[in-house]
Each structure stands twice: as structure tokens, then as C-alpha cells.
Backbone:
């Protein structure tokens, strides 16, 4: 199935004769609204980006002949007459561009004609305000695009004459590029004192004409590709090739964002590309060249990247990157406008070099170590519909930067019913005739729906809340470019938005009136000749350990330019300790004890040379751990096979065939050194790694394990099964790949002869039939001196969601095991889908109890009552703990003498959301009575729960529903009770998940637990494993956690934002996240186990990863 961005390609391929590739209101004075929309009757600014319907038909220039027809225009803010007031420039697609002079008090005068900026191009896009010639007057660079017949398309550079007139001189400066230009960003990339230009272009070539296997990224398109121009005084020189910038035919640039990503003092570049090409990160090499590094820095990116912005959202002095895409938030539009890549399509695109792309907005958190974690889903900013303008700024001056998204499209080609209707062959033939194409019929049928923009308030701790309605920014529209600026010089940021076929928006910010306790500092930076606005400067406020940071880069968002005067919201601060300006030439202006609520004008000529260090080097300090994987002490690479769970379970979202390998350790050969076993995948044997005296490990017993390589190892345990004084090995076999009849699911017991040589037992484990095991834990639970086993079952093959067993296996002392579950723990039968288990004395009575965690099941405690086990139903009080639990680890985290534990869960950085009273539901049944089971997963939106499956996915699995839902419109807002009969729902297995957060559970001493949150960084991804030790020798237990899950449907996107978590404990149940940059604990990939191992050369951490080599760390402080 096609994604939204390739779906548009599909529409146009239906008709081969043409090509395609992608109300006024009165002033509202409301105490409840932070913004007031000012009508043209007040502002005298009545610009409309009007797309003339008759001209579309007359010139055959429309959405079907030009893929960017509805991409809209930009907004430019700047002071063109140096009177201290911000003027407005609006680009028009089919009409003349407009320049409004700010006359103060939100009154504007259209001076376009006298200024001479109307433009000769017939399709203007982006606008850039910059003093290009360094004469102290703001110039205007307008990008032009489109393929309008008779249009001599080229970009225009309007040089300011200083008298409110402009002279077009693009050709004289070498900047009259005639590509499909989107936007230009002026900045001093080589730090020679003048402004250079990155010109963002959009490919000429039709989307449907590409062979994606033939990646053309490195092939230069001299006309249509992106350009980097170096300012050589009175002329700009194309240095694209020698600087390392891609300029290919597959560049579909919609956003260019400039900032110092790595905080090395040099401006870097982020480019957002639409359609199949991935985005780019260009890190400045400080020698006039760039290195493109996106795949090394970002694990996932947006699929149809549009607008973008870069700014510091968490006040750590490193900029984050926010990129918009086109996934709707609400069920009605999600079900009627959206589709996603299949697993095969996604994998093919990745294999062809287009990276991991997913349809959603992305908020890339800068980890300050050369990597980003994509946290948009956890932040709540991932779904804003068809989005263009992206801006990060402090809208309410509380000291935290917010996010504004301008969105909507005038006619929505992704409407599924529209596509279905016009894909009918008879309909195609009626539109296409010998005389051409009936564009009128095609265009008239496209739905047009206005959508509200989004205004996300930064709540701190990586959380945002959409306040568009509360703030008065929710008027539905077809919005594109947007810009912020202080139009009335009152210290807060107003908004200007360019709309298609409706009046522009000018929003007045009322923060100074409604939130008078929130303060600001605005700086006017006076640079030197060549860069008079000091573009590239850094503005930092420091106060009592807090930091507020902005970069001077006005060209940003989507096709737009914001106010060139940095405005820092400072919350309730009335005075700050220091204000620091780092100028482009690395000199510094330092002011101390600065009062807020003022506008300061500062001059680069007054700056001095001094040493500053607001940020550390990207190089890890390794305070606690050192990655020594490169020393090759352990040579094992887990090699996952290519099994595709989604070919069978079409309605689930996470694969269950990539959950290994775990590890286990012990001294198997009696030499006093820790050895360990690590599981293999289907087709790969596990490995028994014997430690040598030099701290290296060697794989042994290869022939033995090779014979069982058909099995996929999920877990293992070393224990003395036959009472002969040495350690034997139990390996749990699992994975979703095998049927119940497959011997590959047989668990294996390998008996040690005392010298580290093993022989396989012929028992069918765990319980005399082939089952999908997930975990094994050894313990003498009946105190008879013999080690028994708990074995947990993961799932019933081909029947995901059906509850399965946990087994207690009694040992006869010779390593022969009998299933005694029914006799001593009957409640473990059909208990759920088990993922992990712990033997711990939770009630302090001296014997070991059971802690159990699993998928779609509540956490459970089973109390040991003289060798019999009974569930403690009040162990978690009234809390509902059902979740997607993956792992368990225990410890006394509050130093009160009893056992607490941490349970690894799905995490919060996900499209899946829960509240205690609004769970995720799964209904399991053979709904169409064809002999196979379906899983219908439902999630809440507001007060109603809807199936997550899209119509085409659901009806492909259940064809009987095609007649019921002939259109997508009929399927929207349908609950499961609308889709299936009540009797069928009642007969289904109904599972719930109430908690997705990886959590700490504190014991009150009686085996009763209270759930406690862990730091937000832990929730960035799924947690599959944890290790507990006191790593800083302060007497308190600390925690290491690892996870990630990559094999999931593109519809929900990979869970890959974790680089591991290191939590320092305070001994009272509190934890502090220590970033990888400081700790040295930096994990890569899908982590499945973390294990501490003693070696002759010190303690190490062994980290197993799915489909990757083992990672090894030296522990530095134990």
C-alpha cells in the first residue's frame, strides 16, 4: 500500500497524458485568548494568495500538471526602511507579490507598486530578507518556481535603494537561478564576513518517472539541484560541487534550516526533502566544505518532509530540529486521507539508500553527542495533518520555546474515496480523450477542507500541549508559509500567515497584557560590513544555572523569514545574571546584571576577544563506562533471519520474531572465571563463550549448538540441574515463526560433564509439547536443595492474543523435570503472554515468590506459601497495571530492606497512548470464520475508542466488510461495536493495556507495590532489559536500561530513540538520568540484554543486540 507521499504519485500515474509529482473576522478581544486575529479593516493588509480557477483550466496549469501547485507562498518580515518597525512581504503564486510598510499600531500600507517588487515571475514561493550587499539596508530575495507557459522563470534579488524603492539585480549578482526554487537562506558559511546563499530547489522531474532502485543522489543536476553560492563581493559563485553539497535530480527540497547543530561555532544545514528522497544534514567542516551526516545522526526521519525549524527546546544550548509531515491527528481524517508503506516497500526503500522514513512530524532531540533522539510522539507533536510552516519560538515568554504549525491544503489529493473513484478504468476513460484531459472534472472533485493550525505550548520535560483553540490560533484555513515577529515592539512575538484562497492572517500577541509577569529581552544586533544583521550570532542569557539560547538566523520555517531581532522569553525573571552575544567572528559581548523587558542595541565593533564555553565537546567524557567493543574481546554477531510476521498477522503492529537474544552467565569449566551463553536466531547457533585469563572470550561446543540452530533462542539459564556440582545450560526456544508442530520450539537442556563439555538431554521441554518459550528462571522454590525451573510461554503460534501458561518444573535431582504447575500454581495456567519473571522474596518471609510480566497482561505477584503459589490480587492496590511489559529487574531502590523492582514497558514515544480509564483494547477472534484469528486493536481519541486499522487493511483481512464499508467516508469514526455484532465481540478474547510507561514499583514491605515514574528519557523507546548495581559507589543502587524495537509496521514507526539509559539512584527511590555523553554508556541498535561479567582485567558489561555484534563496556568506577 502506498504512503501519502507516494499515493499522490499513484493518482497521476492513472492518467499518462500529464505529469504529477507532489473570511474576515472582527477584532476579538478575549481575556481567554493569547492572540487576536486582526481583520484587514484594522491592518489594511488584505493580501490573498489567490489561485485563479479559470486560469488553471485555461493554461492547463494546475495540480495535475505541477505537483507543488498547492504548496502556497511565504512570509517575509524585516525592516526595509530602518524605522524600527517590522514590515511584511507576502509572496503570491498567481498574482503579484506584496510589500506592506508598517505604519505602527498594526496598520500597514501597501507600497508594492512604488517599491517595484511585484515581480515578473508568475509563481513566487519563498522570500528571504537579508542585507545582501552589506550597505545597511534590507534587501529581498524572491524564489520563483512553476512551469507556467510563457513565464521566463528566474529568481529575483531586490536591492534596497534606501528610499522605499528596490532594483532587481539577480542577474548582476549571479543569483537568477531558474530552477524550481523553494527558498534561499543567506548565512556566512565560511566566516569570511559576508553572506553566502544556500538555494533550495525542487526537482523538475516527474515523480512517476523515477526508478527508486537507481539512487541518483550523487549525480549532479546543474539546473534543478540545490545550490550553494559563495559571496565573492559583487558576485556570487556556485561552489556546490566543491563544498560537498548534493545537487541531484532527486532533491525535492521544501525546507532549508540553518543553525549550529554541533555547537562548534560554524553554521550547519538541514534540508527537508519531500517524496522518496531522505533529508540531509550538512555539518560544516570549517574549511569551506560540508560533510553530509544524517544517517549517522538520526535513526528515523519524516517521509514527506516539508517545513522545518531548528531551536533549543530544553534550554541545554543545543538546537533541536522539528520537521513537519502530513499525518492527521484525528480518526475521521486518518481513516479517509491516509495510507502507509507496507513492510516490503519500507524495507526496499531503506535497502536502496533512502534511510528509515515514516509519515509523521519528527522532533529530533539533540543529544549533544553527535546523535538525535526522535521524540515527537512522546512530545505529542507528531500529527498535525498536512503541515507546512514549522516554527519554534517562545509564544508566551515563559522561557520555554513553543511550536507553531501552519497547515492545510486547498484540495486534498490524498482523499481515499477520490483516489478510489478516479482509479476506476471507466472513469479514467471518460476523463482522457483524444483532445486531452478533462481537468475540470478532475479538479472539481477534489475535496477541500480547511484545517486549524497547531500551537504547541512547551510544558517542559519533553511535553507539548496544543493550545491553538485556547490561544485563538485555531481558525480553519489553508495555511502555508508563516513567520513570527514583534510587529508592535511590545516584547512578544506576533504571527503572520500566508493562506491559499483566503485572506492572510495577522495575529497580535497579547502576552504583555495577559501574562504581565512573563518578561523578555530583545536584542538588535548591529554587525559589520558584509553581515550587518550579524547573521550567525548566538544570544545566550544565563541566570542561576539556567540557560536561554537563540541563534540569529531569520530565514526559517517554510519559505519565510522571521524578525531579525532575537527575542528571548524569560518567564518571571526581572533581572538576569548575564547576557552574552557570540558574534560571527567569535568575538564576544558580555553584559551582567541585565534588567529584563527592554530592547538592547549591541554592536559587533564593541565586542572583545574572550574565551567562553557554554557547551562541551561532542566527545563522550566516559565518567562511568568505556566502550571497548573495538578490542574484540567477544566475537559474536547475532544474525536475525528475514521472517515477516505481518504476512500472517496482518493486523498487528510489532513483530514478535526479533525479541532475542538474551544471555546467561556462570563458570561452566570450573576455572573461577565467568563464562556466558548468548542465544542465536533461527538458522544461527547460539554461542557458549569461555573466558580466558586475558579477559577475552572464545566460543566452544560449536558442533553441539550447530545441530540446534533451527531454533531461535529467546532466553537461557545456567544452574546445576543434575546435582553434580557444575553448571548445566537450559535454552528457551521461541519466536513467532514456527507452528506448534515444529520441533524448533523444543527447549533444550545441555548437561555439563564438569569440564565445560555438554550433552543434550532428550526431554521435550518445558511440558512435553512444543511451545513458544520466552523466559527461564532457576530457583529452589521448595527448599529441597534441588534447583527447579520456571518457564514462561510467550504466545500460542498463529493465535497471538490467546493466553498461555507459565510452568513450574520440579527437578528429580538428576536433571529430569516434571510439570507440577496444576498442583502447586494453577493460576499460572492461561495466565497471559509472558515476557519475563523474577524469583524474589517480596513479602520478607524468607522464601522466593514470583513476579511476572507479560504482553497485554497486568503485572502479577504470586506468593510462595510453603511451596504452593497463590496470586496476591491486592499487590498493586487499585492500580490497573496491564501493559506491554518486556522485562523485570529487582533491587532495594529505597534502602528500606525489601525488594522493589523495575518493569520495562513499551514506553511513551509512540502513537499508542493510554490513560488509566482509557486503555488500548485488543479483540481476538476468528471474525470471518475462515480458520485464522484476527486481532483488532483499538485506541481512544477523546471519549471514544476506534480500531487503529485503516479500511483497506481491515477489509483485506476481512473481505466480508467490503460491502458494509464501500467508501472510506463510511468507515470513519466507526467503533468496534459498529463494525461487528455484539455477540461476536462478547465471544472475543478482550485484552487491555492501561500502562505503557517503563516504571519503578516500590514495595511497602508486605509485598504491596506503588508505581513510580522514572525519568522521561527512559520513555523514549521500548525497554527490553535492565541491570542493577551501585555504579558510583555511593551506597545506592543505580540502573542501566536498554531497548528499541525496529521491526514494526511503518504505520506506527520504529521505536529507536533510546541510546540506553543510565540512572543514578538517590537511595530513596529517585533517579537522575545521566546522558550518554557524560556517562560513556552509549548503546546502538536493538538491545535485548545487559549483563555484568567479572574478568581478570576488571568488571565489564556485555550487551546483546538483535541482528548486531555484542557491545562491551568497561566499568570504570566499581
Residues:
Amino acid at each position: 500500500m502506498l504512503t501519502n507521499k507516494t499515493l499522490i504519485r499513484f493518482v497521476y500515474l492513472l492518467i499518462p497524458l500529464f505529469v504529477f509529482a507532489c473570511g474576515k473576522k472582527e477584532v476579538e478581544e478575549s481575556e481567554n485568548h493569547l492572540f487576536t486575529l486582526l481583520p484587514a479593516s484594522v491592518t489594511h493588509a488584505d493580501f490573498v494568495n489567490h489561485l485563479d480557477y479559470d486560469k488553471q483550466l485555461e493554461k492547463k496549469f494546475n495540480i495535475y500538471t505541477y505537483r507543488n501547485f498547492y504548496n502556497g507562498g511565504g512570509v517575509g518580515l524585516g525592516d526595509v526602511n530602518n524605522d524600527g518597525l517590522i514590515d511584511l512581504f507576502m509572496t503570491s503564486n498567481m498574482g503579484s507579490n506584496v510589500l506592506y510598510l508598517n505604519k505602527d499600531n498594526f496598520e500597514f500600507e501597501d507600497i508594492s507598486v512604488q517599491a517595484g517588487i511585484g515581480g515578473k515571475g508568475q509563481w513566487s514561493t519563498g522570500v528571504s530578507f537579508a542585507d545582501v550587499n552589506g550597505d545597511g539596508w534590507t534587501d529581498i530575495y524572491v524564489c520563483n518556481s512553476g512551469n507556467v507557459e510563457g513565464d521566463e522563470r528566474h529568481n529575483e534579488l531586490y536591492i534596497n535603494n534606501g528610499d522605499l524603492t528596490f532594483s532587481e539585480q539577480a542577474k548582476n549578482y549571479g543569483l537568477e537561478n531558474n530552477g524550481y526554487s523553494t527558498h534561499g537562506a543567506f548565512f556566512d558559511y565560511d566566516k569570511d564576513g559576508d553572506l553566502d546563499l544556500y538555494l533550495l530547489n525542487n526537482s523538475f522531474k516527474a515523480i512517476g518517472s523515477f526508478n527508486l532502485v537507481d539512487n541518483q543522489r550523487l549525480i549532479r543536476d546543474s539546473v534543478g539541484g540545490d545550490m550553494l553560492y559563495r559571496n565573492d563581493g559583487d558576485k556570487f559563485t556556485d561552489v556546490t560541487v566543491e563544498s560537498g553539497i548534493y545537487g541531484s535530480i532527486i532533491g525535492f527540497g521544501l525546507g532549508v534550516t540553518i543553525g549550529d547543530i554541533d555547537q562548534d561555532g560554524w553554521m550547519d544545514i538541514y534540508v527537508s526533502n519531500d517524496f522518496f528522497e531522505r533529508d540531509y544534514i550538512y555539518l560544516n567542516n570549517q574549511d569551506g566544505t560540508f560533510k553530509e551526516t544524517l544517517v549517522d545522526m538520526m535513526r528515523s526521519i519524516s517521509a514527506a518532509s516539508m517545513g522545518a525549524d531548528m531551536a533549543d527546546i530544553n534550554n541545554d544550548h543545543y538546537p533541536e530540529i522539528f520537521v513537519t509531515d502530513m499525518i492527521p491527528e484525528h480518526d475521521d481524517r486518518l481513516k479517509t486521507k491516509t495510507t502507509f508503506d507496507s513492510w516490503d516497500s519500507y524495507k526496499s526503500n531503506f535497502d536502496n539508500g533512502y534511510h528509515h522514513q515514516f509519515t509523521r512530524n519528527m522532533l529530533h532531540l539533540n543529544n549533544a553527542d553527535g546523535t538525535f533522539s526522535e521524540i515527537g510522539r512522546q512530545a505529542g507533536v507528531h500529527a498535525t495533518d498536512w503541515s507546512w510552516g514549522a516554527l519554534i519560538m517562545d509564544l508566551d515568554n515563559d522561557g520555554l520555546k513553543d511550536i507553531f504549525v501552519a497547515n492545510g491544503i486547498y484540495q486534498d489529493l490524498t482523499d481515499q474515496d477520490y483516489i478510489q473513484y478516479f482509479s476506476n478504468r471507466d472513469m479514467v476513460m471518460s476523463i482522457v480523450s483524444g483532445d486531452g484531459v478533462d481537468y475540470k472534472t478532475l479538479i472539481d472533485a477534489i475535496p477541500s477542507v480547511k484545517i486549524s493550525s497547531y500551537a504547541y505550548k512547551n510544558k517542559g520535560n519533553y511535553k507539548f500541549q496544543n493550545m491553538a483553540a485556547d490561544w485563538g490560533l485555531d481558525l480553519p484555513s489553508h495555511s502555508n508559509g508563516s513567520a513570527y515577529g514583534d510587529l508592535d515592539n511590545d516584547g512578544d512575538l506576533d504571527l503572520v500567515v500566508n493562506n491559499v484562497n483566503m485572506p492572510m492572517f495577522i495575529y497580535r500577541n497579547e502576552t504583555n497584557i495577559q501574562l504581565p509577569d512573563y518578561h523578555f529581552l530583545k536584542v538588535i544586533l548591529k554587525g559589520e560590513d558584509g553581515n550587518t544583521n550579524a547573521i550567525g550570532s548566538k544570544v545566550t542569557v544565563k541566570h542561576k544555572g539556567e540557560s536561554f539560547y537563540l541563534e540569529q538566523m531569520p530565514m526559517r520555517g517554510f519559505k519565510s523569514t522571521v524578525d531579525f531581532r532575537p527575542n528571548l522569553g524569560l518567564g518571571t525573571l526581572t533581572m538576569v545574571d548575564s547576557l552574552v552575544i557570540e558574534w560571527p567572528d567569535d568575538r564576544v559581548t558580555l553584559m551582567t546584571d541585565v534588567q529584563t523587558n527592554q530592547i538592547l542595541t549591541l554592536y559587533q565593533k564593541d565586542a572583545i576577544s574572550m574565551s567562553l564555553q557554554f557547551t562541551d565537546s561532542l566527545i563522550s567524557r566516559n565518567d562511568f563506562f568505556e566502550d571497548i567493543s573495538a578490542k574484540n574481546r567477544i566475537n559474536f554477531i547475532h544474525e536475525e533471519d528475514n521472517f515477516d510476521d505481518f504476512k500472517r498477522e496482518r493486523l498487528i503492529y510489532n513483530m514478535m520474531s526479533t525479541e532475542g537474544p538474551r544471555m546467561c552467565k556462570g563458570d561452566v569449566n570450573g576455572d573461577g572465571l565467568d563464562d556466558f551463553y548468548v542465544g542465536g536466531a533461527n538458522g544461527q547457533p547460539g554461542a557458549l563463550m569461555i573466558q580466558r585469563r586475558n579477559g577475552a572470550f572464545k566460543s566452544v561446543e560449536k558442533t553441539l549448538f550447530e545441530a540446534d540452530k533451527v531454533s531461535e533462542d529467546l532466553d537461557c539459564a545456567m544452574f546445576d540441574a543434575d546435582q553434580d556440582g557444575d553448571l548445566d545450560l537450559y535454552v528457551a526456544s521461541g519466536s513467532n515463526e514456527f507452528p506448534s508442530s515444529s520441533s524448533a520450539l523444543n527447549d533444550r537442556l545441555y548437561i555439563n560433564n564438569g569440564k565445560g563439555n555438554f550433552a543434550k538431554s532428550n526431554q521435550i521441554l518445558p511440558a512435553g509439547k512444543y511451545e513458544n518459550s520466552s523466559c527461564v528462571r532457576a530457583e529452589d522454590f521448595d527448599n529441597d536443595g534441588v534447583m527447579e525451573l520456571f518457564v514462561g510461554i510467550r504466545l500460542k503460534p498463529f493465535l497471538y492474543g490467546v493466553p498461555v501458561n507459565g510452568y513450574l518444573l520440579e527437578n528429580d535431582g538428576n536433571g529430569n523435570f516434571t510439570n507440577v504447575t496444576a498442583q502447586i500454581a494453577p493460576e499460572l495456567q492461561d495466565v497471559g503472554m509472558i515476557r519475563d519473571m523474577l524469583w524474589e522474596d517480596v513479602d520478607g518471609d524468607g522464601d522466593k515468590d514470583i513476579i511476572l510480566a507479560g504482553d497485554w497482561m497486568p503485572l502479577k505477584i504470586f506468593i510462595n506459601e510453603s511451596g504452593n503459589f497463590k496470586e496476591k490480587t491486592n499487590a498493586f492496590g487499585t492500580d490497573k497495571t496491564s501493559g506491554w511489559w518486556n522485562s523485570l529487574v529487582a533491587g532495594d531502590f529505597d534502602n528500606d530492606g525489601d525488594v522493589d523492582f523495575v518493569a520495562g514497558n513499551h514506553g511513551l514515544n509512540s502513537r499508542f497512548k493510554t490513560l488509566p480509564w482509557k486503555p488500548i483494547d485488543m479483540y481476538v477472534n476468528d471474525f470471518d470464520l475462515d480458520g485464522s484469528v484476527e486481532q483488532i486493536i483499538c485506541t481512544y481519541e477523546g471519549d471514544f475508542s476506534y480500531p487503529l486499522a485503516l479500511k483497506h487493511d481491515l477489509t483485506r483481512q476481512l473481505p466480508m466488510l467490503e460491502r458494509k464499508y464501500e467508501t472510506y467516508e463510511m468507515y470513519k469514526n466507526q467503533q468496534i461495536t459498529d463494525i461487528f455484532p455484539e455477540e461476536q465481540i462478547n465471544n472475543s478474547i478482550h485484552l487491555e493495556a492501561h500502562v505503557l510507561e517503563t516504571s519503578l514499583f516500590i514495595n511497602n514491605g508486605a509485598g504491596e507495590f506503588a508505581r513510580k515514574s522514572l525519568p522521561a528519557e527512559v520513555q523514549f523507546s521500548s525497554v527490553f532489559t535492565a541491570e542493577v548495581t551501585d555504579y558510583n559507589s555511593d551506597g545506592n543502587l543505580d540502573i542501566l536500561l536498554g531497548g528499541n524495537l525496529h521491526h514494526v509496521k511503518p504505520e506506527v514507526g520504529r521505536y529507536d530513540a533510546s541510546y540506553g539509559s543510565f540512572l543514578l539512584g538517590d537511595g530513596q527511590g529517585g533517579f537522575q538520568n545521566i546522558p550518554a555523553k557524560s556517562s560513556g554508556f552509549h548503546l546502538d541498535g536493538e538491545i535485548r540484554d545487559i549483563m555484568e561479567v567479572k574478568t581478570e582485567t576488571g568488571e565489564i558489561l556485555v550487551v546483546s543486540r538483535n541482528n548486531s555484534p555484542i557491545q562491551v563496556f568497561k566499568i570504570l568506577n566499581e
